[in-house]
Amino acid sequence: MNESTARDEVFRDRKAAINDFAFGAQVASVFDDMVTRSVPFYEEMQRMLVEQAVDFAVPGTNVYDLGCSTGTTMLMLDSKLPKDMKFIGIDNSEEMLKKCRSKLEGFGFNRPHELLSGDLNQGFPIENASIVTMVLTLQFIRPLHRERLVKSIFEGLNRDGCFILIEKVLGEDSLFNRLFIKYYYDLKMRRGYSDLEISQKREALENVLIPYRLLENRELLLQSGFRYCDTFFKWYNFCGMIAAK
């Protein structure tokens, strides 16, 4: 097994103390396995993201992947979008960016692109964009900063550009939220995670990953100025949304 597919065992052993989840070297080394096993229909959501992006792609414009992690989304988009579109990946983890650079190089990624370090809590300039993607990233932005960030995405998109957002979400009421979380943990167990791994990761994420309800995300997009917004994917407490300027 090569490095890019190393198995996620970050929380396998019992820890004396659980620190806040961070995208450091240990997580970066197993991230592709972690996200594939932890996120239901991850590959299908990525496929759907690409399918929709194709219809909004404009030659000569920029594609931004905010929270680009190991570069999976950029690699998926690369073969389907015009080669004169520049890809810009932003992440606040140097270890993830290092992994991303190595992965893109390994796949022969040769279109114009930049990989930049940036804290999205502080915002990031978006220019000449026809597509902006955030895959499981907005949930890690402090709620205080989300409205400003989404507004800056809207302002940086060209007319008729799209924003594709994939997020973990809360159920619309406490009954279904509890059930959806239970179904999600059942899926993780089917994919080989133990009770200990699930509980320790949940504790690590408690103060770091703060999801909104789907309708709250929809309201955020519309209030930021997007003309249209729709949900293209929903599985219990995960969703994919697309908004057009």
CATH evolutionary superfamily: Vaccinia Virus protein VP39
The H-and-E topology, N to C, reads as HHEHEHEEHEHHHEE
Please give the number of β-strands.
Answer: 7
Query: What would CATH call the class?
Result: Alpha Beta
Q: Total domains, how many?
A: 1
Mean pLDDT: 96
Strand order of the largest sheet: 3-2-1-4-5-7-6
Helix content: 40-55%
Low-confidence stretches: none
Question: Could you please say which CATH topology applies here?
Answer: Rossmann fold
Q: Could you describe the 3D structure shown?
A:
This protein is of the alpha/beta class. It has one domain (19-224): Rossmann fold (3-Layer(aba) Sandwich). The chain is built from eight helices and seven strands. It has helices at 25-38, 42-56, 72-78, 94-106, 143-156, 174-190, 195-205, 214-223, and strands at 62-66, 86-91, 113-117, 129-135, 157-168, 228-235, 238-244. Strands 3-2-1-4-5-7-6 form a seven-stranded mixed β-sheet, with helices on both faces. Strand 2 (86-91), helix 4 and strand 3 form a beta-alpha-beta unit. The longest helix has 17 residues, at 174-190. It is globular and about 50 Å long. The chain starts with 24 loop residues before the first helix and ends with a strand. The mean pLDDT is 96.
